[in-house]
């Protein structure tokens, strides 16, 4: 459930924005139960966000800063974190267009190439017990992507889905077969990429500046095809152009299109845990498509 902001005292969006930016706040506009825009006295507008808990805000702030270190694509600047509160730059939105999509693909390739110390590595200053959306996500490191992906991404959510009755034992066995075959299904070995980690279309903002900005990361070291599979999962606009720009800079290994289901297993199981049976069916379909390779 979204959180509501406190109504008074020091823990209001205006008070937090003033403390973390050092500017007077001239107005506040609620955006949702946990988001608000605060207008500052220097003409800027910032977003004030309240996470469910302090560790979620810590993970998001660390992730945004880690992505920003790569230089591209642009992310909102973090003005500061205070407990479960974050204050970020606001992204002024525009409309999707092909030039921006091509540039985003090139910039996403640059982000991935910035690398990570290991698969599962958290951003510097980020917690091991992190989050993807509202779901917990453990950033435990490993050197072998197939083994790490099975143990720390797919299987924990499969167990949760079975325990909740969202998937049955026969369906779980299909996903487990994918995990057992991951060494042969994963394609050529690649070094750990610096991932956004939750790159669905809602976290892709087409800016008025003609660039694509990314928000709300679940940043960690992972396989670069995972971010691209997430873009495809929920219908990123102009995805063909994004992929064209990406391939110009960092061509993907042969067979990457056939591996999309492998990489979509993780987010689909997360959604099955959070939102129920409909996503469990999609996860099962992705598992079956992977086994057909």
Tally of individual helices = 9
Structural class: alpha+beta
Q: What is the gyration radius calculated from CA atoms?
A: 19 Å
**Could you say how many structural domains there are in total?**
2
- CATH superfamily grouping of the largest domain: Aminoglycoside phosphotransferase (APH), C-terminal lobe
CATH topology of the largest domain: Aminoglycoside 3'-phosphotransferase, Chain: A, domain 2
Question: How would you summarize the topology of this molecule?
Answer:
Blueprint (H helix, E strand, L loop, with lengths): L12 H9 L3 E6 L4 E6 L4 E6 L3 H16 L8 E5 L2 E5 L8 H16 L15 E4 L2 E4 L6 H19 L5 H17 L7 E3 L8 E3 L5 E3 L5 E3 L1 H10 L5 H11 L10 H16 L1 H15 L2
Antiparallel strand pairs: 1-2, 2-3, 3-5, 4-5, 6-7, 8-11, 9-10
Helix pairs in contact: 3-7, 4-5, 4-8, 5-9, 6-8, 8-9
In summary, what is this structure?
By secondary structure, this protein is α+β, with helices and mostly antiparallel strands.
Description:
- With 293 residues, this protein is an alpha+beta fold.
- The chain folds into 2 domains: 77 residues, Phosphorylase Kinase, domain 1 (2-Layer Sandwich); 194 residues, Aminoglycoside phosphotransferase (APH), C-terminal lobe (Aminoglycoside 3'-phosphotransferase, Chain: A, domain 2), CATH 3.90.1200.
- It has a 5-stranded antiparallel β-sheet with strand order 1-2-3-5-4, sandwiched between helices. The chain has a two-stranded antiparallel sheet with strand order 6-7. A two-stranded antiparallel ribbon has the order 8-11.
- The longest helix has 19 residues.
